[in-house]
């Protein structure tokens, strides 16, 4: 930390919506988001040919100063009167946050479970909620498996952290943090009472006057606040019961993952021709795929997250709405895509979540864009990027499509009851996959057009 400035003490309460991601041990374990970058391994090695672990850890530590969320942890307030608060940490345990796999793994399309983050332990809720694992592949490449918890931020916020870790310019040495980084992060409060005082001061500063502050506070009923407080007080008891019943095993077991790489331009053209966006096309393809596995179904529904971010919302961690999209199970793709577009647009226009009727959705589908520019971890070119979906363990299927450079990688995690190879065949059919040349990376985590891993756990 800087020795030249009196740094401010900081604490930031999470929103009640964000608190749902840490409401109990099952939800906490399920909401680990993961992404995998496959990079050229040569720039990460030392003179002896082994990964230069000290240099890698030093790079991550320096870069973490430019992503303040990587240097914060959650702490409860006294008597759990409010939501937990983000507070700075004075130092990072890099042995915990930056790990290295013990053995070289095959660069094999049948081994995708190694890249989903499911094989890593559940994060420690008392530490900053992120970690990296560097996995050497027998091709010479290196997989960087990056995880962060959903309470840290949604996918769009996660991409902001990705922008820091893998920039668009190769850098031999990462920049040193300066006064601006130290001031932005600050130092932790002395105790829980100070956490509350700092959080109240931040909230009060956002209110234009006493009357407006009073109205803002009572916008939520006293009964709702009391119920949430009671839930926080009982949370340790609930988590102890969850540990005894083995419910956590259901989060980590009985799931498989797969991915499919398609040409981004081709997918974009097809989506436009059908009257939608790439996100609409991916959602529609997921619905078609699930409909083929339910020949007797009359309708199917799926959840679609919608970003509500606008100009100046970059600091907001989670800012999404959700719409439940319902279609006729027998409808063809050229009807489903415009139907998805219309329902999503109606939710956008309404300015809020639209989830009506029974909780009968098969899961969720969404997409994110990381841009067409080449990325680098240090001087190591990022060859492929894959995002792995995180979600409710009750979902049958969760789909996350991530575009990078000229490719769109569609990643799926599904319950073992889903015929995953058949599901992925539908994506190949409907999204026009890019041709694969032997030995050429194509956007999938290990250089193959698609892969299915054995049942492993959640992501």
UniProtKB/TrEMBL annotation:
Pfam families reported in the protein's UniProt record: WS_DGAT_cat
Regions crossing the membrane: none
O-acyltransferase WSD1-like N-terminal domain segment(s): 31-282
InterPro entries on file: CAT-like_dom_sf, O-acyltransferase_WSD1_N
Superkingdom field: Bacteria
Gene3D superfamilies in the cross-refs: Chloramphenicol acetyltransferase-like domain
Protein's UniProt name: Wax ester/triacylglycerol synthase family O-acyltransferase
Organism of this sequence: Microbacterium psychrotolerans
């Amino acid at each position: 930390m800087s020795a030249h400035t009196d740094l401010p003490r900081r604490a930031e309460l999470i929103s009640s919506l964000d608190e749902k991601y840490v409401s109990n041990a099952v939800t906490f374990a399920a909401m680990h988001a993961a992404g995998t970058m496959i990079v050229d391994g040569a720039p990460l090695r030392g003179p002896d040919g082994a990964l230069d672990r000290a240099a890698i850890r030093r790079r991550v530590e320096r870069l973490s100063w430019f992503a303040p969320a990587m240097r914060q942890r959650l702490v409860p307030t006294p008597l759990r009167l409010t939501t937990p608060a983000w507070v700075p940490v004075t130092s990072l345990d890099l042995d915990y946050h930056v790990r290295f796999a013990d053995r070289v793994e095959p660069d094999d399309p049948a081994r995708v479970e190694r890249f989903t983050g499911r094989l890593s332990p559940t994060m420690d809720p008392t530490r900053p909620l992120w970690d990296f694992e560097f996995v050497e592949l027998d091709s010479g490449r290196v997989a960087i498996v990056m995880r962060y918890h959903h309470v840290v931020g949604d996918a769009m916020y996660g991409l902001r952290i990705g922008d820091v870790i893998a920039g668009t310019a190769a850098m031999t040495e990462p920049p040193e943090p300066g006064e601006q980084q130290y001031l932005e992060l600050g130092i932790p409060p002395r105790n829980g009472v100070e956490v509350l005082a700092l959080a109240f001061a931040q909230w009060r500063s956002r209110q234009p006057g006493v009357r407006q502050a009073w109205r803002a506070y009572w916008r939520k009923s006293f009964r709702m606040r009391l119920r949430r407080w009671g839930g926080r007080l009982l949370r340790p008891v609930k988590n102890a019961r969850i540990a005894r019943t083995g419910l956590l095993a259901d989060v980590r077991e009985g799931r498989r993952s797969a991915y499919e790489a398609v040409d981004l331009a081709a997918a974009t053209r097809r989506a436009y021709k059908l009257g939608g966006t790439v996100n609409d096309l991916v959602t529609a393809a997921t619905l078609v795929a699930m409909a083929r596995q339910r020949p007797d179904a009359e309708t199917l529904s799926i959840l679609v997250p919608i970003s509500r971010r606008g100009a100046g919302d970059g600091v907001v961690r989670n800012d999404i709405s959700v719409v439940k999209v319902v279609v006729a199970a027998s409808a063809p793709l050229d009807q489903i895509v415009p139907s998805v577009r219309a329902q999503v647009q109606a939710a956008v226009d309404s300015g809020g979540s639209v989830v009506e009727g029974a909780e009968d959705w098969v899961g969720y589908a969404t997409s994110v864009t990381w841009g067409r520019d080449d990325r680098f971890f240090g001087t190591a070119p990022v060859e492929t990027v894959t995002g792995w979906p995180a979600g409710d363990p009750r979902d049958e299927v969760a789909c996350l499509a991530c575009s990078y450079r000229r490719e769109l990688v569609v990643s799926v995690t599904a319950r073992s009851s889903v015929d995953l190879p058949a599901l992925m065949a539908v994506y190949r059919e409907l999204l026009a996959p890019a041709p694969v040349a032997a030995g050429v990376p194509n956007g999938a985590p290990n250089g193959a057009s698609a892969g299915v891993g054995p049942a492993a756990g959640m992501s």
